[in-house]
């Protein structure tokens, strides 16, 4: 009780300090000063701003308590040392306090204590606030916003604000009139109260400051003149009809934001239907629906956009009217081959999109039955990802024009017959533009000047149909349906592993070029030795028994461990991290390049490093026997795993041995480390003992974390075996073990402790990492799915959810729910402490109030910055000074978030690419790849399966099966499939124009013939020697040199070669002779897995095996 009272007193004192500081800032900013501020460098389509934000539905951009755009400086204007932050968005329709909104579905994390809380070693002075991860705070909106630079008084008290608002509203009105004249008008949202105006007003203040400077007037005049010119375009240039509305001038946005007329957020585009898009804002309890390309107004996936809210009923009514007209048109033209072909193409596109990733993406919330809560249209692009590149193919005609031409040619052949003479063709007219089709279907076609295409492209365009290019968008005029761009480079043929790898890196905005000379000049000379002065200022740990535990092929070893027993029965546990910040000095070319890259990208076949190999693999890497500079965290711990004390400092270390996870696990299991190389002054037996003690302490730390509410989910990662040509020959799920848990727990311990230290001593600038509570809509959907499986899941907190998982006894059910849980949890993100209310610091999955990254500076730039901050704290005494202000830290945090998400996507796409290559190879060697799958979801005309062998989730469509009928029961969520007797692959090949399926069929027939011949020869031999043992048949077949080699070790090849008969469930035959397969969740079904390498990215498709056809 006394502890709770002390915590409450501390929180009240902090709130009073916040209030006092806010009032002080408000008083000093009564007038918005624009003098001396940097001019706006905002650009819309061809943005050169150094910052951007990748789009994802799992990353709400705004802080609910602070209205900051992930700490992004200057509203993403890319201005150094300018006030940072973006508005959370528009006020809600109802008079409800959004900031203080209670959210019982997410629970109150205030009851969760900081790991090791109350231990003597964790006494830096930070106490987690009540409800640090929830939404139960009751402080005022002003209190929660005290950190914003300049307060809100600037805009309101500015004498020119009324005039600016009047002008901006006039421009907004002109824009509405323009849209009405262009035929794309909806009524704007009816006026309603904005209970949470503060974030919009503060963002307006910051935007106004970002637009400031001596050139403000010139910029305003230029933008307004451009805006007026575009408005007049429709009347003055009727031959160039305006297809889109012009963007509002950037100078108009601040007053409109301050007045609550606009909302700012991140746009994401529906992967299945580019006409539907959504703008995510955390302040609104639902996303804003953007209907159609006109309302999206040339904005792209991931753009930060300004949106005006529209009347939802009108937008929805217009959408339904268009859909009804389209439906009637399709009914009237039911026998139109062109129309049927167009529908088939749409289905084909959907299947391709589903097949271009490892997992199915979540269906968007807008459906035919559910009307969105908000609707709007884009009035300005605030910022676009700088230097955005797209991979794709080049064509002479637009796809629609090519389809029309193909239709006309087909009609001609039908009219004249095959013997009809080819029409005489004159010389090919050279077009002004050619068309770039991005592989990402959310990106529109891009018009490219013909002179940028290969010299013979116009005359020989078919030769380039299967080659990948890279392009970028330069501009998108309001009078053009498509943007104009530049062709950057030609990559090579589709399907080539290195070409596809380069393409995915380009799409994810990662460099493929080598490090520049200016970067390499910053590197120390090699061989490198520790300067004498470092021996004087660092703690010498070279005599300590320190060792690394990493993957067997690791080169960048940036962390090591040690343990030493003390006389009083305690242990000193050391986490030693490479001191990368010693070599990467601030504001050098090396530092700028590392900040731009932000992270190492781990592909299947190689890594794209953040730092040059000289640093990452040599000078910084904690290689055995080498003296290295380190930043160490040493914890004094009891035998029970309780932290009693901690020490941070710069050190000199020398690793005694390099262990793989497999070798460390052997020691934990009690085996001898006979194969490792240990430095002469140490022994393998001593390291074995160290590992066992560390394992015991780590397990106690893990138990404590779970008791405190941590959520541990099994990530399904594939591990590949590559041949000498770096091509895949096998894959398997990467499994965890106790050695990995040992390293994980000690890294977490160090990260927790460092986060607490820098947050207390650098409350404005500390770079931390947070993990939001799940999105309520997705969490509720997850809970409903669990109920359908007969499982009650408690979702009030991360700990409650973990306890629910542990209570599941059905392995298939747990696997399914863990798979689904990744879709409702959000991604963790970096942030600057000074940009966010302390109630939002928490990490949901780890269930801690503070967290950061400290232990991997070779591969993460965030860790380098944290090292600098910790060094500043250790050197600064009671009042440390850090050289970067909070806006600069916030900008780096945002860059690290963007790059980390992009790196994760690149890694997933690389895994997908190599899996496709492996599946294609297995199909070529042994025929169609058949694997057992688990049904994880049943729909009315499809069902979703998870294939554990390959770690993929795919949708199986009933229209891709040779069936007579199918019946869906929405109450039992079962799907009855009435099979015909046809083989699936043969039927698909005969009923589609898919060349890939035709090849799969040919391959299947060839292998069936080969198996038949092999089987016949075996039976002939057995008859000769009068042998009839069934097992002998399998052995001889298995040794056939053309089927599988005797020395083969690939599990996937052995499984495909074995031709094991699939096992079916839910089969029944009716009295009338109908052969039925009933599909229900958690059922095991055999599926055929194919990979089409002629597409980029390659496409994985999964088909159900017909249980009533004999498999050959």
Automatic annotation (TrEMBL):
It holds the Pfam family RNB. SUPFAM superfamilies: beta-sandwich domain of Sec23/24 (SSF81995), Nucleic acid-binding proteins (SSF50249). Residues 320-349, 393-427 are annotated as: Disordered. The record marks 558 as: Important for catalytic activity. One of its GO terms (cellular component) is P-body. Its EC number is 3.1.13.-. It is found in: Cytoplasm; Cytoplasm, P-body. It comes from the Eukaryota. InterPro entries: Dis3_CSD2, DIS3L2, Dis3l2-like_C, NA-bd_OB-fold, RNase_II/R, RNase_II/R_CS, RNR_Ribonuclease. Mg(2+) binds at residues 550, 559. GO terms for molecular function: 3'-5'-RNA exonuclease activity; metal ion binding; RNA binding. Keywords: Cytoplasm, Exonuclease, Hydrolase, Magnesium, Manganese, Metal-binding, Nuclease, RNA-binding. Its cofactor is Mg(2+); Mn(2+). The keyword Cell wall biogenesis/degradation does not apply. Residues 404-427 have a biased composition (Basic and acidic residues). Residues 538-876 form the RNB domain. The keyword Magnesium applies. One of its GO terms (biological process) is polyuridylation-dependent mRNA catabolic process. 3'-5'-exoribonuclease that specifically recognizes RNAs polyuridylated at their 3' end and mediates their degradation. Component of an exosome-independent RNA degradation pathway that mediates degradation of cytoplasmic mRNAs that have been deadenylated and subsequently uridylated at their 3'. Belongs to the RNR ribonuclease family. DIS3L2 subfamily. This is DIS3-like exonuclease 2. It comes from Pisolithus tinctorius Marx 270.
